[in-house]
Structure formats: C-alpha cells, structure tokens
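Bit of a strange request maybe. I'm writing a small parser for structure token strings and I need a real example to test against, not something I typed by hand. Could someone generate the tokens for this chain?
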Amino acid sequence: MIIPAFDFLEGKAVRLYQGNYLDKKFYNIDLYEHFIKYKNKGVKIIHLVDLSGAKNSEKRQLKLFKNIISYTKIPIQIGGGIRTEQDINTLFELGFKRVVIGSLAIINKIEVKKWLKIYGSSKIVLALDINIINNEKKILINGWLKETNSTLEEIIDFFSVENLKHVLCTDISKDGTLSGPNITLYKEIVKKFKHIKFQASGGISSISDIFDLKKTGVSSVIIGRSLLEKRFTIKEALECWQNE
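Reply from user aminoacidic:
Good idea to test on real output. This should exercise your parser:
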C-alpha cells in the first residue's frame, strides 16, 4: 500500500532533514486539493505527523487536524506528541483511524503494551526509528536526539505478545535525504517477523525505489518529500505498487 505523508510544524507542511528541526523546508500546498486527488486516485490511508506536538505537547495542532478530518473521508493515521491515554482518546474522537506511538514505546513499554490491549492491534502503530551500527539496529527516541540500548528486534518481540501488528520502521540515515531506502533492512525484518505489517519510510526518491521495496515484502511504503516535490505522481506510485 502507498501511504502519502504530511508533516506539520506551526500549521504548515514541512519536511525535516534526518529529523533536524533546524534543517527544515516548508511547502506551500493546497492540502484540500491533495486530499481530493488522493481520494480520486484510490489512496487507502494517509500518514500525518504533528511535529509541533512532538516537540512540545502543549503546542499540539489539534485545530488543524480537526479541520483536515472534516474534509476528507480517507482514513488517517497520526503521530507526534502522543503521550497519554487521553491523547489517544482525543484523536480517535476526532476521527483518526490509527495512532502512531514513538518514543513512549521505549520510555514506558508497560503503558504502551496496555494500550495495545485496550484499543487493539489494528489501532496502534509503533514507530521505531533506528540507527544501524555494526548491524545492530539501535532505537533512537526524543526526536532522534537520544540513542537507547533497545534494539528493533527486542522491542518487536516485547510487544508481539500483545499481538503487535503495525510497525513503521525508519532508518534515520535515510529520512528526508532522497538517497534511496535501506532495502537490506526491510528484507531482513520482513523475513524475521512474518506477523508484522511493516511500513517502510525514509529515502524514497523514485519509482524504482517503490518497486524495490515492494519486493522486500513490506506491507506499505510511506512517501513524503518525493511526492511533495513531484519527483513522481501519486498515480505512478500506486500503479507501480499494484503492478509489481
């Protein structure tokens, strides 16, 4: 599945380079027009990130996201700044389909495990951002500022007892770079964790990248910057995924 992505900072669409808030590029886009086009082309789900909320929970862009929900029927998964059960309830009440949990899955594993049980595995996506050193997939948290001792494999194993289903895995060395995805990574984790629907993210710059990712067996590909910069169209991306 192709999942178009939009990151928002202070009410504007933006892309960060490797998660760096100081290295950002804003995009002047008609979001409503994009959503209409995506709906007409057959997009099944959209990925949104609240970068303001991720940085400061008091600056969550709920008004913006409420407006977005009001003018599209496409299911949306949303992440950024989700720290409490109340945050999750608020987003589900607004009409979001899934919530994406990042740092908290490492900082407070027991709480997030409880959420998987309460809301069900179809409603929760774990966003696991990794830095690969000597083939160890170390997870980074707090906007990629802090490397943990947890590995990707350990965390997936931990949450799998609560029927973890969706994992958004990003190799941070690729994010926002348009340098191509880490194909070796996705081949490896898809083979190891057959029960997980992986969402691949980071580095996608061409249709051939999508073609290569489809062959790894990932469930979905999240595409942000390359669509915003019109390196290919949503129609071309969807056709590539369906026809591979």
